[in-house]
Write a structure and sequence with these properties.
The protein has 590 residues and is α/β, with parallel strands linked by helices. It is 48% helix and 13% strand. It folds into three domains: 250 residues, no CATH class; 196 residues, von Willebrand factor, type A domain (Rossmann fold), CATH 3.40.50.410; 39 residues, no CATH class.
Length: 590
């Protein structure tokens, strides 16, 4: 995407990134010779195992991330999207690491000190990149481009202005130049010269031995460990000699500010993430088994019970007026959906054909007219939508601003699906109270046991069930416009509830469409448990549904990429898109 282009939508950026991730994964599988590699939520997986990120320069910045951060693609003071060659270079680098490095040996030799460990990991990545076959000059160019782009981002962020930052940048460049044979970029030579001069006596011997031993991982590791130990000692010395105020500022966070681009690329054995927006690993340790402290106050309720009849009628009038202005045709959408969802089925016979099976009822025509050829019949194949589709809507507080646009789209979608012969259900999920309610009260009275599990009362809402036609449920759909319904959300349990209802339908195909604008959030549960407790449960539940294969699970993010949770997803921009555009996008993800 060029700077002269009109600003692309967030949905377009996310879709582009998903396509790019798929292409990079295909490159990884081809170059590494390892199957099962794929990206999910901007992370690399091999089957169900989360792979480590290996090195800081293997993390190009996506255009969608820049847009979500509120910066333009070329903003000098904000996130800047990396180009296509950077993503290809990162994929090539990871592929070579998987192809040439013995992970078990590397893990067994890693040092305990964090800084020494990071340097050791980085040097092993350089060793892998140096072993690129000579027949792959394009791969060499891609990896060089990616490393230089990372270096430029480091300098542009002014991370080199601290003593630790310039040390990191210098070590990264002189070691890579030595191992791979690529020269230090001319633009950085003067910047790195003073630090390189000070490092030479300390790491010179090990540095020169790196390239000689790069074909033997164990021998190479001896010299990489020596360099890592020196760098760690220099960092400790610099910290101890810094002013007390500076030292306090450094110790105030988990990592120093200059490590913003040097991401923590150590992977835990237990995969996890903080949110759908930020593909970061969860804290160390195995997750707690999901449970609820109490289910006494959970309820499944019809939407009409949550809104007064007069208010519901008023909300329906508002919704109808907005739909009339939108001018969307459910009939046209129904034909599009039938093409996507229908399966061929034999439906009688077509008589009077010139080829096929002999039609006994037409043999008399042969006697009356010997030249008659239309004596055959063929099976009539007609499309049949033996399908049930459930829409599960996140009714958390942040979704209130999207309620009208979402209700319009869902109203038209349900009408069109019914015309296409699809059984439909519209469900919502929220909580019965803010910040725990009666469940939290009971936990406090019981003595505040540690790791209590879910601490809120669930409210699962049925706006329309599979047995009800649209005409009987249209009033209850307007309940989506009532702001008081929107509180907090526990996505994993809602997903299990909706999938169980869907599995009860006797159809050949089942589709569950989840509409959400963020990760699960219940304040009481998050404060009393692991902060990623609800995230992990949602991820595990979605993975289980997708693995079983009885339900096709699709995610629809409202201004958010949900690929961290769902293998198939799309992103809507309800503030900018028309109802027609939203529906076209939903049809695509189906």
């Amino acid at each position: 995407m060029h700077s002269g282009d009109s600003a692309p939508s967030l949905q377009a950026l996310v879709r582009y990134q998903q396509q790019l991730d798929a292409l990079c994964a295909a490159t990884l599988r081809a170059l590494s010779g390892q199957s099962g590699l794929h990206y999910r939520g901007r992370k690399l997986w091999q089957g169900k195992a989360l792979l480590p990120s290996f090195a800081p320069h293997l993390h190009p910045h996506a255009a969608a991330d820049a847009a979500l951060a509120g910066a333009s693609l070329a903003a000098p003071d904000g996130p800047i999207a990396d180009d296509l060659a950077s993503f290809r270079g990162a994929a090539d680098g990871v592929a070579l690491r998987l192809r040439t490095s013995d992970r078990a040996l590397h893990q067994g030799l890693r040092p305990a000190l964090p800084m020494a460990r990071r340097v050791f990991d980085l040097l092993e990545q350089y060793r892998s990149e140096s072993l690129v076959p000579q027949a792959w000059p394009g791969v060499c160019a891609n990896m060089r481009h990616r490393f230089e782009a990372w270096s430029q981002a480091f300098v542009r962020a002014r991370l080199h202005e601290s003593a630790q930052g310039i040390l990191l940048l210098t070590v990264a460049h002189i070691c890579r130049a030595r191992v791979t044979g690529d020269a230090v970029p001319e633009a950085l030579e003067d910047l790195l010269e003073a630090t390189r001069f000070g490092l030479a006596p300390r790491i010179g011997h090990a540095l020169y031995a790196l390239r000689r031993s790069r074909h033997n991982q164990a021998d190479y590791a001896v010299h990489a460990l020596a360099i890592g130990a020196v760098v760690a000692a220099l960092v400790d010395t610099e910290r101890s000699s810094s002013k007390p105020a500076e030292r306090l500022r450094e110790e105030g966070g988990e990592e120093d500010a200059w490590l913003q681009i040097w991401v923590d690329f150590e992977a835990d054995s237990e995969p996890g993430f903080a949110s759908a927006l930020s593909p970061r690993d969860a804290p160390e340790g195995a997750p707690e088994r999901y449970r609820a402290f109490t289910t006494s106050y959970d309820r499944v309720v019809d939407a009409t019970q949550l809104v007064r009849a007069e208010q519901l009628a008023s909300l329906r009038t508002t919704l109808d007026a907005q739909l009339a202005q939108a001018g969307v045709s459910p009939g046209l959408l129904a034909r599009q959906l039938q093409v996507r969802l229908a399966l061929p089925r034999t439906d009688g016979w077509d008589s009077g054909q010139e080829a096929g099976r002999i039609d006994g009822s037409r043999l008399g025509q042969l006697i009356a007219s010997p030249n008659e050829r239309r004596l055959f019949r063929t099976e009539h194949i007609a499309p049949h939508t033996d399908c049930a589709l459930s829409v599960l809507v996140d009714c958390s507080g942040s979704m209130k601003t999207h309620a009208l646009a979402l209700a319009m789209a869902l109203d038209v979608l349900l009408r069109a699906l019914e015309r296409a012969g699809v059984q439909t259900e519209l469900l919502g999920y929220t909580t019965g109270a803010w910040n725990g309610g009666r469940a939290l009260r009971d936990w406090r009275r019981a003595g505040k046991s540690p790791q209590p599990g879910r601490l809120n009362e669930l409210c699962h809402i049925v706006f329309k069930d599979h047995a009800s036609p649209y005409r009987n449920a249209r009033r209850s759909l307007a309940a989506l416009l009532k702001p008081e319904l929107f509180r907090e959300c526990v996505d994993g349990e809602a997903l299990r509830w909706a999938s169980a209802r869907l599995l009860a339908q006797d159809v050949r195909r089942r589709i569950l469409l989840v509409v959400s604008d963020g990760s699960p959030m219940d304040g009481a549960t998050v404060l009393a448990n692991d902060p990623h407790y609800l995230d992990r449960d949602l991820q595990a539940t979605a993975a289980q549904i997708e693995t079983q294969g009885q339900i096709a699970l699709r995610g629809v993010g409202v201004g958010l990429d949900l690929s961290a949770f769902y293998q198939r997803s799309t992103v809507l921009d309800l503030a900018e898109q028309t109802t027609r555009q939203v529906l076209a996008q939903v049809v695509d993800v189906l």
